[in-house]
TrEMBL record:
GO terms classed as biological process: porphyrin-containing compound biosynthetic process
Domain Radical SAM core, first and last residues per copy: 71-313
Name of this chain's protein: Radical SAM domain protein
A GO term, aspect molecular function: 4 iron, 4 sulfur cluster binding
InterPro entries referenced in this protein's UniProt entry, alphabetically: Coproporphyrinogen-III_oxidase, Elp3/MiaA/NifB-like_rSAM, HutW, rSAM, rSAM_sf
Pfam families (alphabetical): Radical_SAM
Gene3D superfamilies per UniProt: 3.30.750.200
Entry's Gene Ontology cellular component terms: cytoplasm
SMART domains assigned: Elp3
Organism of provenance: Parasutterella excrementihominis YIT 11859
Domain of life: Bacteria
Length: 463
């Protein structure tokens, strides 16, 4: 593995080249200037997570790279992700479904193997020593596991990872089947935050896409979980489902707020062609969800009504009613952190190298049982990956500050993005505030697209 240079070191020769080259056609990154930027600024399409391009490591290169990464202490803020691959049923819109949950034996076998995986690197510099600031049990459905296994795996994480004293430990899941035995097991294990996929409280809407519980059950379960008063309770709400209207969305937000939850996350539904929901809509079994214009109105409604109710905006999609909810993992996972990863299908990154573990539980378990970290593939650090993360970090928090990037990486960055900034300001996506630019509500709606455009524009200037 070659020594890693900092982005600042690499920026100097690249920018000498940048100064000599002919300016690129930038029209593809400009927004349409109109009276309705939240709807019309850019063409409608599904955005994927913004980032720099990365290339795969050859399987023959992986052992040496991995061995060097594992032998060095981490130097960045760190999060850990644990993937639990089981779901009791498949939700129609989901691409993360891996395996149906079958029985107690499967839960026990999974927990046993996961604990072995946590031990594999526990004496290696990459895992021991430097603190881990946030842990996230995601999936899949971590709440599908048996109560005793939930408690065991959280305790194992606390034992084998060097958690910071204020480490956020999130246990994700769904409320269906999450009884008091499992709630108490997760709390006994040490979870201090629950992230629960409510999606919509409306019984007809949620059951149409494969969720099980009705509104009354959800409310009862959430009230029970909050009554322990030991952990932040946060729910996801999603806009874009079949049968959703602006009125049902307002009602979802109202119920969430009135439950006195610690946090509410609002996401826009992306209907991917590979999802069962896409086929249901194509075959006429379900009507399409709200169109682009209505989804924009739903986003606006969330921003406006949460603000009016006094909830604090933590990032583009996250709101808190109090200071118990911190949203560490969701934010840090998008920043210049390292991410340790465990479980089938989990993805992590170390010093800019990405890695993905075997997705199928059998292949994952076989590797762990033979004493090998179950990594299936790795990617090289994209050129300027830290800059890419620094840009994403800013937009995730609703602002863009080229001066800060200039201070941190290269003075060229103070003016590099001016053509985009000028256009986006005129189009109503950015508003100048001192040295920086805040995203307007319209800009927030297009935040993913704008982040990718900033990175693509940067790449075009440094080829
Ligand atoms: S429970 Fe979660 S991971 Fe499982 S299918 Fe539903 S949305 Fe996907």
């Amino acid at each position: 593995m070659q020594a890693q240079h900092t982005d600042r070191e690499k920026a100097v020769p690249m920018f000498n080249a940048f100064q000599r080259r002919v300016p690129d056609d930038i029209s593809r990154w400009l927004a349409k200037v109109s009276q309705n930027p939240i709807v019309e600024a850019f063409p409608e399409k599904i955005d994927i997570h913004p980032g720099m391009d990365s290339s795969m490591l050859l399987p023959t290169e992986m052992p040496e790279v991995l061995s060097e990464l594992v032998s060095k202490p981490r130097t960045r803020r760190t999060v850990a992700y644990i993937n639990v691959p089981y779901c009791e049923t498949r939700c129609l819109y989901c691409l993360f479904y891996i395996k149906p949950y079958r029985n107690k034996e499967e839960s026990k076998a999974f927990a046993d193997t996961l604990i072995k995986e946590l031990q594999l690197w526990s004496d290696k510099p990459v895992q021991k020593g430097e603190p881990v600031h946030a842990v996230y049990f995601g999936g899949g459905t971590p709440t599908a596991l048996e109560a005793c296994d939930i408690e065991r795996i959280i305790k194992a994480v606390r034992r084998y990872l060097p958690l910071a004293n204020d480490c956020e430990i999130t246990y994700e899941g769904r409320l269906s089947g999450f009884g008091t035995d499992k709630m108490e097991a997760a709390l006994a294990g040490g979870a201090n935050r629950f992230s629960l996929g409510v999606q919509s409280f409306d019984t007809k809407i949620r059951q149409a896409v494969g969720r099980r519980s009705d509104k009354e059950t959800l409310i009862r379960q959430l009230e029970k979980l909050m009554s322990y008063d030991q952990a932040a309770v946060v729910i996801d709400l999603i806009y874009g489902f079949p049968f959703q209207t602006l009125e049902t969305w307002k009602e979802d937000l109202r119920i969430g707020r009135e439950l006195n939850l610690d946090g509410i996350d609002c996401y826009q539904l992306r209907v991917f062609e590979k999802s069962p929901l896409y086929k249901y809509i194509q075959n006429g079994k379900l009507p399409p969800g709200p169109d682009h214009e209505l989804r924009a109105a739903m986003f606006q409604e969330a921003v406006q009504s949460m603000h009016e109710a006094g909830w604090k905006r933590l990032s583009i999609s996250h709101w808190a009613s109090n200071t118990r909810e911190r949203n560490f993992y969701n934010y840090y996972a998008k920043t210049r952190t390292d991410c340790l990863a465990f479980g089938p299908g989990a993805g992590g990154n170390l010093s800019g190298y990405g890695f993905m573990q075997h997705r199928q539980p059998d292949a994952w378990a076989k590797a762990v049982e033979s004493g090998v970290k179950p990594i299936a593939m790795m990617t090289k650090p994209p050129l300027f990956w830290e800059l890419g993360r620094a840009v994403a970090e800013q937009l995730e928090l609703n602002f863009f500050n080229p001066s800060q990037l200039a201070h941190e990486f290269s003075e060229k960055f103070a003016t590099l993005w001016n053509p985009l900034i000028d256009n986006w300001t005129e189009a109503g996506l950015l508003a100048p505030v001192g040295n920086r630019f805040e995203l307007t509500v319209s800009g927030q709606f297009w935040q993913g697209r704008m982040t990718q455009h900033l990175l693509d524009y940067f790449k075009s200037q440094t080829k």
